[in-house]
């Protein structure tokens, strides 16, 4: 029984400084794959190198809304070329964030839409950050006819989930489901169609409850997070593992080359 961590920032110092042990722990904890997205033009090369160094890691390339003001016009051309050259599995992490004071939404939207065009041109799925912005993101995805992907750390309504699922998207859940107090997210994870869900750690962030305010999160934690997910759903772990694996391969079809 294996698990795929569909979202992990292994280039972040908290993980990168001990990356060999992070990878070793992952393998020991039945992690079959880790999707590592870039977030800005500045970390693209680091993320590419990580994906080349470790078989366990697959690459996604994109510019996150947090770093929208680091992105220059010429960076989009480079992004397209690197996505092709390194056979990335998705354009990501991209998106919009309602709660960023320092980066106007207009700037975020320009960067996001340019990357949707790239995903459309290259027929790639996207990995999306959608904090407080699910509706505008869903509208853009629909307009640009994007070929599915993952909305990570999903925390919208059931109705918003349904819209995204109809557009071919999977919804990512991670450490948040391990907190009793996260009633809404736990209810989503428990009740959404199992075919629409993938798991992630978002490490080094989104610590599960047993690591709250202590060590950084890491992909190995997915084994225990997935156990809690199975308990929430009340379904046999083996069956869930098999379905989630298939969901991940559906969301990111290029992965199937690695895992068959
Ligand atoms: Zn992320």
Task: Report on the architecture of this protein.
- With 260 residues, this protein is α/β, with parallel strands linked by helices.
- The protein contains 11 helices and 8 strands.
- The protein has helices at 13-16, 19-28, 44-53, 73-85, 105-122, 134-144, 158-166, 183-191, 222-233, 237-251, 256-259, and strands spanning 3-5, 31-37, 57-61, 90-95, 126-129, 149-151, 169-173, 197-199.
- Strands 1-2-3-4-5-6-7-8 form an 8-stranded parallel beta sheet, with helices on both faces.
- It starts with a strand and ends with a helix.
- It binds zinc ion.
- Zinc ion binds at residues 7, 9, 93, 202.
SSE blueprint and pairings:
Elements (H helix, E strand, L loop, with lengths): L2 E3 L7 H4 L2 H10 L2 E7 L6 H10 L3 E5 L11 H13 L4 E6 L9 H18 L3 E4 L4 H11 L4 E3 L6 H9 L2 E5 L9 H9 L5 E3 L22 H12 L3 H15 L4 H4 L1
Parallel strand pairs: 1-2, 2-3, 3-4, 4-5, 5-6, 6-7, 7-8
The site of zinc ion (ZN) has 4 residues, from loops.
Q: How much helix, percentage-wise, in residues?
A: 40-55%
CATH homologous superfamily title? Metal-dependent hydrolases
Query: Treating each run of at least 4 consecutive H or I residues as one helix, how many helices?
Result: 11
Q: Architecture in CATH?
A: Alpha-Beta Barrel
Overall mean pLDDT stands at 96
The shape, in one word, is globular
Bound molecules: zinc ion
First and last CA, distance: 15 Å
Counted up, domains total 1
Strand order of the largest sheet: 1-2-3-4-5-6-7-8
Poorly predicted segments: none
Radius of gyration: 17 Å
**Helix and strand succession?**
EHHEHEHEHEHEHEHEHHH
Report the β-strand fraction as a percent range: 5-15%
